[in-house]
Amino acid sequence: MIPVEPDGGRLVSLRWLIGSAFAALTGDGVRIAALPLYTAVSTHSPLAASAVAVAEVLPWLLVAVPAGALVDRGQPRRIVVTCHALRAVVVAALAVAVFTQHAGLPVLVVVAFLLTCGETFADAAFQSLLVSGAGPQRLEKANGNYVTAETIGLDLAGPLLAGALFAWQPAACFAVNALTYATAAVCVARLPRPAQPPPGQESAEPGTGFRRELLDGGRFLLGHADLRSLVLVVVLVAAAVSAGNALLPLYAVQSLGLRAALVPTVWVAQAIGTLLVARLLPALIARLGEGRVMMGTLLLLGAGFVVVGRAPVAWPVWLGYFVIGVGSGGWNVLSATRRQRLTPAPMMGRVTSSYRMLAWGLMPLGAAVAGPLARLTSLGAVFALAGGLVVLVALVLARRLFRAA
Known about the structure:
Blueprint (H helix, E strand, L loop, with lengths): L6 H37 L2 H17 L1 H10 L2 H24 L5 H30 L4 H30 L1 H20 L20 H14 L1 H31 L7 H26 L1 H20 L5 H28 L5 H14 L1 H14 L2 H18 L1 H7 L1
Helix pairs in contact: 1-2, 1-5, 1-6, 1-7, 2-5, 2-13, 3-5, 3-8, 3-13, 4-5, 4-7, 5-13, 6-7, 6-10, 6-12, 8-9, 8-13, 9-12, 9-13, 9-14, 9-15, 9-16, 10-11, 10-12, 11-12, 11-15, 11-16, 14-15
């Protein structure tokens, strides 16, 4: 954990930490855009594209929980540096393979799986560093800065950079990705070395078996009433967002007559909403209180989906996704902050990984349900139903969300 420092030292450490996140997330944005595109143009096979997509998400189901347990046993700073360095080596090897035309489907699948495996470790360790570096009073601001870095790097800069580089040389996308991971490793390496934990606060209980540690994170997460409520909301919100994202291109082009080239600008509107709310959250919380703002973000998220689903023409889709960006961005910051505050420091890695496994590992279910549901109803109805579900969950759990504040 980052040792206690004067406020100036904490702020410097947080800047390096958020800088590392921005570098790594920008690289992720480049790869997430470039890897499926390279798979498509090099194999021309839907099965190959599906195999790479499954390989990218599978570690969140298979590796995330053991990764969290190992993070709690180790030193988060060292784990983040090691993971970024190893991921830089792996994606640099992919760049060489692409440049020399040796990147067949087995190489693409293995690289996708390994990079996400590294992400499960790095993400859990990063959360521990963020909590200990920010302290309880700065968690909302620190999480807001992280969401800002994530939105700019992962959703905007990364994909735009990938588009420009891919047109010139596909291998350049993965070379830049390797450079971003190396930069992230250097930023984290500049953080102060961890202090020895005080007596009685070691990361793992003496004699505790690893199998028991694997289960402890999930047990604590689902056994704590307030955390259980957060998990329920996050799973449903993730499913709603993945369902909408899966159908948005088809809905916009087929039902609303939007030109295909303009569809990505809808996600830009969502990113702008997220960036805006990340900056306004501290003032909103000070004025209205955490519970009211949490409820407001959920209601806005649901309302945004309803606006998209009921749009008679194309232009309300941009407004709806801007509102979705405000709602989802605000909820992500506040739910992460609350989870971090309710989680004991020695269990941060395990609880974070269990949380991610449920939220991200189950996201494909939303996309899987969206297609059949659209066939039974309509494309617009899926968005409206997703929004209504989010609003219903917010109202049902309103007392729990306010009480936890």
